Amino acid sequence: MTVLDIRNLAVAFGATPVVHGVDLSIARGEALALVGESGSGKSITAMALMGLLPARASMTADAMELEGQDLRGLSDAALRRLRGPQMGMIFQEPMTSLTPVLTIGRQMTEALRVHFGLSGEAARARAIDMLDRVEISRPADRLRQYPHEFSGGMRQRVMIAMTMALEPRLLIADEPTTALDVTVQAQILDLMRTLVRETGTSLLLITHDMGVVAQMADRVTVMRHGRLVETEAAAPLFAAPRQDYTRILLNSVPRLDAPLRPAPQPTPPVLGFRDISRSFAGRGLLRRSEPVRALDGVTLDIARGETLALVGESGSGKSTLGRIGTRLDLEHDGRVEIDGIDITGLRGRALRKLRSRVQVVFQDPLASLDPRFTVGRTLGEPLRIHQGLAGECLRTRAADLLAQVGLPSSALGRLPHEFSGGQRQRIAIARALAVDPAVIVADEPTSALDVSVQSKVLDLMEDLQRERGLAYLFVTHDLAVVRRIAHRVAVMRRGRIVEMGPVSAVLDDARHPYTQALLAAAPVADPTRARRPPAPMPHTPDKPLSLVSDGHWVAA
Amino acid sequence: MTAFAPSDAPRRTRSFWWRVLMQPAGAIACAIIVLLLAAAGLADLLAPHDPTRMAAGRPLTPPSLAYPMGTDELGRDVLSRIMYGARLTLRIGAIAVGISLVLGLTVGLLAAYLRGWLEALLMRSVDVLFSFTETLIALAFVAVLGPSLTNAMIAVGVAGIPFYARTAYASALSERSKPWFEGAVAAGAGPGRLLFLHLLPNVMPTMIVVATLGLSNAILAAAALSFLGLGAQPPQPEWGFMLSAGRDFFSRAPWLMLFPGLAIALTVLAFNLAGDALREAMDPRSLLREDAR
């Protein structure tokens, strides 16, 4: 029995076609994943289905039916009646889908009353029941709370409860876990799987993450450049993709069972952290609240030519440590050393001179380039400051840097917004290279990129490391990326290092329960792997780090 | 390796000024401002009479072909005075806004860049100034400096500083927290570079909109001061002053108040519309709206 049937869907923005001839069909209780990289048209396809296309878009389709009802040319009012009981939607950022000024209870019961005509009391009972099913404790009390009182993962649970309370025929989930930490992501995916199975709802999952696809989907549709590449059942697609593009996409996904990078020769550390602590003063409206301890006595060394990955979930302090290493954050306790020399107290001119030793690459490549500086000016800036270059000499050197990151010199005269995400990240790397640094702190440098682009940027970083003996402090939340790029890894939680050591030791022989939980939660791009239910996170106080084997430290 | 293809980033399909002019507000504002500039610039050629020459016609002649806006109590041609008045008005606006903009930007940028106790000192001072109405500050200033057109301009300019400083501060603060600013810091850029090459150009678009909207405010404030006799002095053909002088003859010669009043209203309207049109054209969200059409 087909729930959703779309045939030959085409969408154009003005004269520009963005989706051509897409066919989709979903059977009752089936989970279809729509995957593709940015610009593939997967989100546009979903928006067309939901009737949320912008006014400038024009849409044609030979068929577009939900439960046999033609969706084409429905009025806004008719669509509104469909959304909810027929089509439930879950988006990436739950905060934007919940009204901040109304309580959760009000928002949940309103939908139930409007669509099902339930009485206030009945709606409330149903809302409590749903919150209970998404494993939110004390649901009756929670109904009185506002969205901001929930954490990101909790909000997404509420969103799922609200959506599933209406028992939609089709659930459309657009990157539902992309904004969440891995352990939370695993719980949410598990929850969605259970609910979908229990209610017989069909699922259309839109995602870029092959790991999520492998865990959730029965069938997979791959899109690229607005066209359908292939539709196939999940197991054969992952085992033997027929299309080249699908193969490339799958091969680009970093794997947790990939071979390791050989360890570099032991060398003296270039960047060292000694007992670093950092608190952020909490500021309430009327009274000063307790300061938040972002880092608590962290000690680390990074050697020449080495990649040290710093992993942990949001709020673990990994980015703060990176900022302290680049001297963008100077208000901390403890010492920072470069080549064994204490640089903690340096300020002003002395600090600026030293900045050429440690450079930084940020997550969002667009935000990390001055929007009003051409690429040439951005690259020229450090050259001018540290090497006093000017004129033709500067230009040649900047073009040279671009060549090293694989961009032509014609890029020099352009502005950041004229490039794609991957190209911008290359420019940011070129800027970091300009002053010939010893260490680059890379804060989630590939998280905002498509997998195929991520893979190329990681290749580039590896090549540069080999050529120049660069050290990387690589901040990431993705353990598969760690395996791909790092030699050593430090796992952080609540401002402390809980486990540290060579990648093989930490990932293959994790000793700390938190590391084990992270590993268990990481989505694996293999549908045949058993889906392990996420283990509840143990809340044990961490002991000081102790050595368990060669270079492998655990706080347990 | 990625091919160097045109990126997926949004293209600017039309030029900035085109976007400004395509809005009704922008087009109207532009028309009035051009008219105003023409009147001011070509007053020597176009004005039928010397604006200060008394008895150019009989006193209090109603509008006629010879005197399209009539004459005042001293027989001066009102049209000529309005045209020359446009010069004064534009000069007042430009100088007053110039003072507010330069000083406000300096305070705002420095406060946002330096942080710490200087930030607190600068911004709290601005807050104190902000708690008085602009007109009151301007009045106090003129009271100290003495009534003259120049002092009125300075007074209006100084009174505007808090608003410009606040806006520049807020904008600079949000820019400096972005990764590209930290990238420049990491690249080793010193204070001068960070302030003038990075922060200033990124704050300027906002400030241009604020200054355009502020022009109308400044013109109005200066006219008010002149109306109160604290700005322009006779025989300067300043609109606010003309309005005030016309009061005594309102029942017999309403054109003495009508035309200067109209001139002020139109000018203020024009700059307000221009500011709105600029803001709309610079707003990235309006770009999306335009695409959606």
UniProtKB/TrEMBL annotation, chain A:
Residues 523-556 are annotated as: Disordered. It is found in: Cell inner membrane. One of its GO terms (molecular function) is ATP binding. Pfam families: ABC_tran, oligo_HPY. GO terms for biological process: peptide transport; transmembrane transport. Keywords: ATP-binding, Cell membrane, Membrane, Nucleotide-binding, Transport. The keyword Transmembrane does not apply. It is a peripheral membrane protein. Belongs to the ABC transporter superfamily. SUPFAM superfamilies: P-loop containing nucleoside triphosphate hydrolases. This is ABC transporter ATP-binding protein. CDD domains: ABC_NikE_OppD_transporters. InterPro entries: AAA+_ATPase, ABC_Ni/Peptide_Import, ABC_transporter-like_ATP-bd, ABC_transporter-like_CS, Oligopep_ABC_C, P-loop_NTPase. Residues 4-250, 271-519 form the ABC transporter domain. NCBIfam families: PRK10419.1, PRK11308.1.
UniProtKB/TrEMBL annotation, chain B:
GO terms for biological process: transmembrane transport. GO terms for cellular component: plasma membrane. Its main location: membrane. The chain crosses the membrane at residues 20-43, 92-114, 181-200, 206-232, 253-274. It is found in: Cell membrane. Residues 86-275 form the ABC transmembrane type-1 domain. It is a multi-pass membrane protein. It holds the Pfam family BPD_transp_1. PANTHER family: OLIGOPEPTIDE TRANSPORT SYSTEM PERMEASE PROTEIN APPC, PEPTIDE ABC TRANSPORTER PERMEASE PROTEIN. This is ABC transporter permease.
